[in-house]
Design goal:
The protein is an all-alpha fold and 308 residues long. 79% of the residues lie in helices and 0% in strands. The radius of gyration is 19 Å and the shape is globular. The C terminus is likely disordered.
Length: 308
């Protein structure tokens, strides 16, 4: 294997591992929530540990860059979208829906980047993009409505998780302005640090008075540590690096692994049971994502019209 192919192979491994960790993160979150750790406390602790770990790594490796004052507004914006809004919506949503349902909805993020491209880059949506969005939304509805009697709670939880999807799209808009000027360690460290500044006041306003009633079991502490190290640090660094090398579209394909990995991990770790209709809905979501991705590359209808 040549040096260039070996380097590319490592990038693909990083992209896969990042999404493996994110797939597991929904189950780790579920474990912590079931130990009666409130969402804001959970995310605040996750951010504190991740910031300390990443800060230590940045100092050891010397990879931390200084932020230019002109770019500060972009860092403030991306940290507000993710981790702040994203984790608030995702974690509160997961108190009402299962890890697998959460992961299925989150996996639709690449689809909706097409809408961002339409709005901010003036790109046109193809028929395949629209077909993929419709298919995936139908699949999400099947997963949400199948196999659970608490429909109102499922709908509310799904809406909150969709809020996380919108926050992730906002993050993509901000990060595109600075991703070429800062390395992955710098981006992830400052998004966590600034996100922590957003989270700490919320913790004292909402959760601090209930701290005595929280149960920090061994499983909960372990889950928070795994979320911090693997999902908030390692996954973001590896994904950011893969985006730089492969581009957003190719790196984004690997997120289609997340629902399947989450479902398998949830089945073995927290004994989550899915109905046949939920498996069917999950398959429709993944099919919609693939239709949008693959067909979008093959059909260049609008550019062909312009060239005529």
């Amino acid at each position: 294997m040549s040096k260039s192919k070996n380097s590319l192979f490592k990038v693909y491994i990083q992209a896969i591992l990042a999404n493996v960790f994110w797939g597991f993160s929904f189950v780790w979150t579920d474990i912590a929530l079931k130990s009666h750790i409130p969402p804001i406390t959970l995310v605040t602790l996750r951010m504190i540990i991740a910031t300390i770990l990443l800060g230590s790594w940045a100092k050891f490796s010397g990879n931390l860059q200084k932020i230019k004052f002109a770019d500060l507004k972009y860092f403030l914006g991306l940290a507000f979208c993710e981790p702040f809004l994203y984790f608030l919506c995702e974690t509160y949503g997961q108190t009402m829906v299962s890890p697998t349902v959460t992961s299925v909805i989150v996996a639709t993020i690449p689809l909706f980047t097409s809408i961002i491209a339409l709005s901010f880059l003036h790109e046109r949506l193809s028929i395949s993009n629209l077909a993929g969005i419709i298919l995936s939304l139908m699949g999400v509805l099947a997963v949400v409505f199948a196999g659970n009697n608490n429909i109102s709670g499922q709908i509310t939880g799904a809406i909150l998780v969709f809020g996380a999807v919108l926050a992730a799209l906002g993050y993509a808009v901000f990060v595109k302005y600075i991703v070429s000027r800062y390395n992955a360690t710098t981006l992830v460290f400052y998004q966590n640090l600034i996100g922590l500044v957003y989270f700490i006041p919320c913790f004292f306003l909402v959760d601090f008075q209930h701290i005595n009633s929280m149960h920090f079991t061994f499983d909960a502490i372990l889950a928070i540590g795994e979320l911090s190290l693997f999902a908030s640090v390692a996954a973001f660094i590896m994904y950011s690096h893969s985006v730089k090398v492969l581009g957003v579209s190719k790196a984004g394909v690997f997120c289609y692994l997340i629902p399947v990995l989450t479902a398998l991990f949830a089945f073995f770790v927290v004994d989550e049971q899915l109905t046949i209709f939920q498996w069917f809905g999950m398959a429709i979501v993944i099919l919609g994502l693939l239709v949008s991705q693959i067909a979008g590359k093959k059909i260049n209808f609008y550019n062909n019209r312009k060239s005529k």
